[in-house]
Write a structure and sequence with these properties.
disordered C terminus
Length: about 120
């Protein structure tokens, strides 16, 4: 757990625990690279909330586009946020929507980093 606090002190609660399990088997170089890439890819729950609020004022579904859910974004856009009910539900669930997105990104980044920076050095012929 100290490795996660060292590299990514901004993480909270469930996200911190999830990333800590991914960090468990990483070398220092992998952990450093993971933290750099993951910081660029992760989304903030507050921004998800603000973009969901924009659904009432400007364009419904902006928060779904922000989270990379293009299909749901289009559905919300063309149905007015599923007649605003879907947008209201998403206002209450903005943290879990963001967490699920970040969880998926963490898994992708961890596999990318493990592939790019193997644990053992390659032997040259």
């Amino acid at each position: 757990m100290s490795k996660i606090i060292k590299y990514m002190p901004e993480l909270q609660d469930e996200e911190q625990l999830h990333v800590a399990t991914l960090f468990k088997d990483m070398t220092e170089e992998q952990a450093e690279q993971f933290s750099r890439v993951y910081r660029q890819r992760r989304k903030e729950a507050n921004i998800t909330l603000v973009t969901a609020l924009l659904g009432f004022l400007v364009v419904a579904g902006v928060h779904r586009f922000y989270l990379g859910q293009i299909g749901m974004g289009l559905l919300y856009f063309f149905t007015g946020g599923l007649c605003a009910i879907g947008t209201i539900v998403d206002l209450f669930n903005h943290k879990s929507l963001t967490y699920r997105y970040n969880e998926q990104q963490a898994i992708e980044v961890a596999s990318l980093v493990r592939g790019a920076f193997p644990d053992t050095p390659l032997l040259e012929d």
